[in-house]
Amino acid sequence: MTSGVMDAQEIDLGAVREQVDAVLEDFLASKARAATGRAHPVEVVDTLRDFLAAGGKRIRALLCVVGWHAADRDEDAAAVLRVAASLELFVAFALIHDDIMDDSATRRGRPAVHRALGTRLGPSARAERLGAGGALLVGNLALIWAQELLHTAPLSLERRRRVNALYDAMLEEVMYGQYVDVMGTGPDDDVDAALQIVRYKTATATVQRPLQLGASVAGAEDATLDLCTAVGLPLGEAFQIRDDLLDVFGSTDGACTPGLGDLREGKRTVLLALGLGAATPAQRRRLRDLVGRVDLDEHGAAEVRAILEATGARRRTEHMIASRYEQVLRVLKTAALPPAASRALHGLALTATRYTS
After folding, report:
1. For residue 56, what are the CA distances in angstroms to 52, 95, 109, 235, 275?
2. Where do the domains of the chain lie?
3. CATH 1.10.3720.10 is the classification of domain 1-154
4. What is the pTM of this model?
5. In whole angstroms, what is the distance from residue 85 CA to residue 68 CA?
6. CA separation for the pair 167, 161 (Å, rounded)
7. Cβ atoms of 117 and 135 closer than 8 Å
8. What digits encode the pLDDT tens for the residues 86-131?
9. Residue 106's beta-bridge partner residues?
10. CATH (residue range 157-357)
11. Is the dihedral of CA 292, 295, 301, 307 positive or negative?
12. What is the pLDDT of residues 255-279, one digit of tens each?
């Protein structure tokens, strides 16, 4: 291991990211060799490799390693890096499938996997359907390989049992959250229902479970896992609420531009629920007329944004993010964490709640 991961004073998150990427690259290179030897389509591996290389902050992997440090990590980091890399393959699975369900055109500035595969087959409805099917299978392999990485991490039997139980819980929570999100009936003013989607679909899998998984690799006690929850849930909620806000309004520095995706999908976000709850009857009618329309254009989106501003929904959403960030800081202030883990969590909390792209 490099000193960046093991240094007791600081956790070099850049070094951690590079090491996780190295585990992923070695693993996928072995899969490419196996596919060649068995006459399997190597393009599946290439598609996943390209997807992972297209960007992403590796925040789940970083949090996993920070959780390991929070539990006074063992000297050998091979196991936690493998579990952290597994989380990135799980994320690839979730995002590829999410883009299919939402029929998203792009992901991280590139064509979504189902669109890219469909384009290879030519412009036709059949090509689109086959592209979606191909992407579904690529996503399935990402999940299978995530499990393989997890199960081949060098862990004792007791630690493996606990890590597997947490990982299984994360998978179940994400699937339930995704189901509720997909089966939603359209714009709704129920803030609690929107928060439930955030909690299950994102907060647990983005922050809470990665922290707990890393801590469990190091043999953490229940008190440390509870601390991971106390930090992870409010931070994960803030992360997703910020993401939903950025999708509609973009960032003030222009690094993230406003989009149409969530508005066209009629995504049940906290932002929209707050807007509907505070809207006048006329504003509510306009929001219900505009949000969820697949042909929504920039003019219509501008009207939605204006209503969300006028009702105070944007301001109240910012307040919800800030209050959760402050909650995390209060927990960290009293937590008996190793200094390096505490400083890393402070930095990641700031990144997750105030990032601009």
Report:
1. 8, 11, 11, 18, 30
2. 1-154, 157-357
3. no
4. 0.91
5. 14
6. 10
7. yes
8. 999 999 999 999 999 988 888 887 899 999 999 888 888 888 899 9
9. 111
10. 1.10.600.10
11. negative
12. 678 888 889 888 889 999 999 999 9
Residue by residue, what is the 3-state secondary structure of the chain? CCHHHHCCCCCCHHHHHHHHHHHHHHHHHHHHHHHHHCCCCCHHHHHHHHHHHCCCCCHHHHHHHHHHHHCCCCCCCHHHHHHHHHHHHHHHHHHHHHHHHHCCCEECCEECHHHHHHHHCCCCHHHHHHHHHHHHHHHHHHHHHHHHHHHCCCCCHHHHHHHHHHHHHHHHHHHHHHHHHHCCCCCCCCHHHHHHHHHHHHHHHHHHHHHHHHHHHCCCCHHHHHHHHHHHHHHHHHHHHHHHHHHHHCCCCCCCCCCCHHHHHCCCCHHHHHHHHHCCHHHHHHHHHHCCCCCCCHHHHHHHHHHHHHCCHHHHHHHHHHHHHHHHHHHHHHCCCCHHHHHHHHHHHHHHHHCCC
Strongest mean pLDDT among 161-165, 178-182, 257-261: 161-165
Say if 1-154 and 157-357 have the same CATH topology: yes
